[in-house]
Design goal:
The chain is mainly beta. It is 8% helix and 42% strand. It has a five-stranded mixed β-sheet. The longest helix has 6 residues. The two termini are 19 Å apart.
Length: 77
């Protein structure tokens, strides 16, 4: 049995959002920088990603009502 990485604070993640690949890092509130892919673990997307593993998929509704589909492609802890 392999010990697969899961998303935690400070994880660097490659995620596919509505078909588009994005590189994100999950950080604490003091370190957010959305333009450079650093999102808070308290943000809706960051919160939803915590604990996910490679190939996990999930849907979520953004605050503006738009639905997105996400798939975790790679995790670096």
């Amino acid at each position: 049995m392999t010990n697969e990485p899961e998303i935690t604070i400070n994880s660097k993640v490659t995620v596919k959002i509505n078909g588009e690949h994005k590189n994100l890092q999950i950080v604490g509130s003091a370190d957010i920088d959305p333009k450079n892919g650093r999102i808070s673990f308290l943000s809706p997307l960051g919160e939803k990603m915590l604990g996910k593993k490679n190939n996990d998929e999930f849907e979520m509704t953004l605050p503006n009502g738009k639905k997105i589909v996400c798939q975790i492609l790679n995790i670096e802890n």
